[in-house]
Amino acid sequence: MKAAFVTDLKKVEIRDIPVPEITDDQVLIKTHTAGVCGSDLHLFLGTHPFRKAPAILGHEIAGEIVKVGSKVTNVKAGDRVTVEPQLGCGHCHFCYEGSENLCLSKSVPGTPKWIGTFAEYFPAPASKVYKLADSVSYEVGTLIEPLAVAVHALHRIDQGTRGRTLCILGSGTVGLLALAVAKVQGYSRIICTDTAPYNREMALKFGADYALDPLNEDVVSRVKEITGGTGADASLVCAGAPNIIDQASACTRKQGVVGLVAMITKNIPVYTYSFVFNEQKLIGSMTYAPKYFAEAAQLVNSGLNLKDYVTQEFALDDAQQALSCLAEKKENVIKVIVKP
Ligand SMILES: NC(=O)c1ccc[n+]([C@@H]2O[C@H](COP(=O)([O-])OP(=O)(O)OC[C@H]3O[C@@H](n4cnc5c(N)ncnc54)[C@H](O)[C@@H]3O)[C@@H](O)[C@H]2O)c1
Ligand SMILES: [Zn+2]
Ligand SMILES: [Zn+2]
Question: Cβ(102) to ligand 1 under 6 A?
Fold first, then answer.
């Protein structure tokens, strides 16, 4: 089968490798669509702290089951599915608590133990496979994984703040998916920000009440003005910028919550007094607990339409262009998809 390997800095090679063998409790999926995620870019751009090329990237997938192991009963050949791309050890504290996302020895695709989804076939544990409703296209099915990131983050910050005002700082893929989930959850007022005009336009199209431009507006004063001086009940940081945590805190009301989804790996300054003076909580959010992946699949299967979130599609042979498209953002991009 064909698989796209990142072999060097910004270099992708299509190689022919054997179709993966499956074990008794796994299924083999013919990949129809594989999403390109910001995290795939680290290896592509040479900024990953420990992973080394060559590797088959990709962890977002939708496809059709072509083979099931002898012990598999929940799905069958022909089923259209997506995959929760994480498998915990099953016996640590975090796995017991339902927080497999935090398991210290979990397996994920794109590593020596589990290939990535930029390949014609992809093996997965049957327990991590979710069926797609007939009405859900493979393209939209691929978005269930990043949607799960948003579902998990909104649960992390939900401290009685549903129904009220939410501020989403950064309206890229994750911020816009958080907007979609927040709409379903019934936040009454959603204020988005983004430096890019296209992303602000999309935020308004997908239902934000306001889309603020941090380069040309004082975001904090605008949020205060919109909320009658108190600030938003919760803020979700979905972009990395040196002042973004201070900005989130200043946009949030006393005893409000600041959720942190953006992976900011640089040491940035944080004015901690603002959290003390305002008795705010700062809460991190990392991928998703399995139950929130299930919730994301349920949302899509019951009709949440994310069709317009897919902005570019490439053949597997053009995986290098797909990764460059997201890395360079020369065009308006939300989600890039590779179609083997
Ligand atoms: N915690 C997790 O599990 C998890 C999962 C996926 C992604 N992430 C992280 O979430 C962040 C967002 O991911 P993404 O895929 O949406 O990326 P993205 O590049 O699609 O979105 C980032 C957006 O932020 C905007 N932006 C840049 N500076 C800004 C500023 N100062 N104020 C407001 N907006 C600004 C950009 O224009 C862009 O639209 C990244 O840091 C990513 O690593 C975290
Ligand atoms: Zn992803
Ligand atoms: Zn574990």
Answer: no
Q: What is the pLDDT of residue 244?
A: 98
Is residue 35 within 6 Å of ligand 1 at its C-beta?
Answer: no
pLDDT per residue over 8-21, tens digit each?
999 999 999 999 99
The pLDDT of 204-225, averaged and rounded, is 98
Ligand 1 centroid distance, CA of 145 (Å): 16
pTM reported for the whole predicted model? 0.97
Question: From the CA of 288, which ligand is nearest?
Answer: 1
Distance CA 156, CA 150 (A): 10
What's the pLDDT tens digit per position in 249-303?
A: 999 999 999 999 999 988 999 999 999 999 999 999 999 999 999 999 999 999 9
Report percent pLDDT > 70 for the chain: 100
- Proximal ligand: closest to the CA of 88: 3
Domains of the chain as residue ranges with CATH: 2-145+288-339 (3.90.180.10), 158-284 (3.40.50.720)
Reading the block at residue 123, the tokens are: 């093996």
Give the Cα separation of 207 and 325 in Å (integer): 26
Query: Which atom number of ligand 1 is nearest to the Cα of residue 243?
Result: 31
The one-letter amino acid at 15: R
Instruction: Give me ligand 1 centre to Cα 4, in Å.
Output: 25
Q: Which amino acid is at 200?
A: R
